[in-house]
Hints:
Blueprint: H1 2-17, E1 21-25, E2 49-52, E3 57-61, E4 66-68, E5 79-88, E6 94-100, E7 103-108, E8 111-117, E9 123-127, E10 138-145, E11 148-153, E12 156-162, E13 174-176, E14 183-191, H2 197-204, H3 224-236
Antiparallel strand pairs: 1-14, 2-3, 3-14, 4-13, 5-10, 5-14, 6-7, 6-13, 7-8, 8-9, 10-11, 11-12
Amino acid sequence: xxxxxxxxxxxxxxxxxxxxxxxEYKFDNSLLxxxxxxxxxxxxxxxxxxxxxxxxxxxYCGANLFVASDSADLDxxxxxxxxxxxxxxxxxxxQYILSKGSYQxxxxxxxxxxxxTQSDGSIISxxxxxxxxxxxxxxxxxxxxxxxxxxxxxxxxxxxLLYDGTISDSADSLLIGSNSYxxxxxxxxxFGSAKTAAYIYSRAFFDCGDMKKEDIxxxxxxxxxxxFILAQQWLLIE
Length: 238
């Protein structure tokens, strides 16, 4: 009976906790998309090497490229969030962290930058001031709320630009570590919603604030993973 209750509640929770998360790459010795939409076509392929990350393992990027096939959910809506932790081993030249035709996150020397192609074909791009540090973990994020694009570095807004609330669809694959990014990448997340500044700040410092009790796996997100851990603990109770 306890097991049946677990299965039924899990079915309900899967439809609740995962809301808005399109893709998630934890890189815990895996290239799988652990996001809540269940789209296995978003899994990455490539020759992967892993090192200690900001949480668990992380993906080492050198000359290798990691690819996820084009899928409808990776063509982002007007409001979205892209975030990642990076530990660059080089700050020379342009190095793409994540790209998919109409949207890119990259570093250029010690700057963080982004590029967005709107539905009319016009391109909007922005860069931060030099803020990155070599060989240290740093959090970068881009949010789009339908009016403005905000680039964050380590929880602080580093560039804000207006846009027309659209993004062009692209048939290109999602690339991670493209254009010879040298360093580590961890905890990549793509949301179909604009996350708040408070969320971005909490992620940058893994300070979950009021959610610490419920955030059982310590990733600053109350998710289905937290529920599964709690449910498993409950099942073990005599």
